[in-house]
Amino acid sequence: ELGPYSHFMQKEIHEQPKALSDTIDTVLDHGFNASLFGDAAASVLPQLQGVKILACGTSYYAGLTAKYWIESIAGVSCDVEIASEYRYRAAFANPQHLVVTISQSGETLDTMEALKYARELGHRHALSICNVRESAIPRASDLVFYTRAGAEIGVASTKAFTTQLVGLFALAVTLGKVRGRVDAAAEAQYLDELRHLPGSVQHALNLEPQIKLWAEQFSGKQHALFLGRGVHYPIALEGALKLKEISYIHAEAYPAGELKHGPLALVDDSMPVVVIAPNDSLLEKVKSNMQEVRARGGELFVFADLDSHFSESDGVHVIRTPRHVGTLSPVVHAIPVQMLAYHAALQRGTDVDKPRNLAKSVTVE
Length: 365
Ligand code: F6R
What we know:
10 strands; 365 residues; alpha/beta; glutamine amidotransferase; five-stranded parallel beta sheet; 16% strand; globular; binds fructose -6-phosphate; repeat
């Protein structure tokens, strides 16, 4: 069942080009049209005033990424909340806001309960982005987008995450179209980005030998810091979660601009700092944050794309991810952080597919 792979997680990381192209096929079949989200969507999407995303763990980070897309592409306000927090607070509900739940399993109890609670509070419409057909959460939702990642067995979510991002990107573009913010030329451009995504992800997978060498340096560390800015900040969060979860190395993620407000105090020469630094509009800011780290002796491990123009220097290691792919860049940068966590865990000899204390589907509170 594992074929040439040592673990399900490794297999699932490598299945991403296929999982993504299968999921993208669904988008291509419908185009960026309401029908992508089910029959009810045509009447629901045009009247929306906002989006509220509810999820847990890695799925929550997919939601955080989507917020950037939904606000910038569709011009719709979007807030993202951890399901287990939302369900216990007296939240404000605008019935014109679409509730979007994101769940690989479709059975996560907190996400399910958050959805029910949102309905009780008056939300009228709910979209489920889910990987398991006919599971509880899509059954309780009027709109559905199924990711086509296939069965995910490793406890740590990998291909489910990147395919969720495709569904969420499609939501952002579709909403943008409905609202007249995305014209035919922009739509063609977004379709093009989607078509190129599996190829770029394959390029990122080819970085595995270099990432393995980095992982060897990480495996003896107690702590690590992940930095990113803008739409790459959620990828830093995801990288830190993956590393914690399977290698048991304590890791935290910060938006790089926040360093000087506290976490910089942690940085010394025993703290590896991973930076997601592709060539986007915030790159120059990220570079100055990196200098702050270097000045305190922190060792930098930088994922920079071909256009970021970084060079290696003392204490600065660089791995080049593929040429900047545009809006979908966070999807491509999810791959190297998954592989880094995987190889660090291998080095430490942990049970990669079944990390201690964790379950694949969290159906308890
Ligand atoms: C982390 C991970 C978890 C899940 C979370 C939500 O690698 O897998 O954080 O993302 O338990 O699960 P789903 O998506 O099934 O609701």
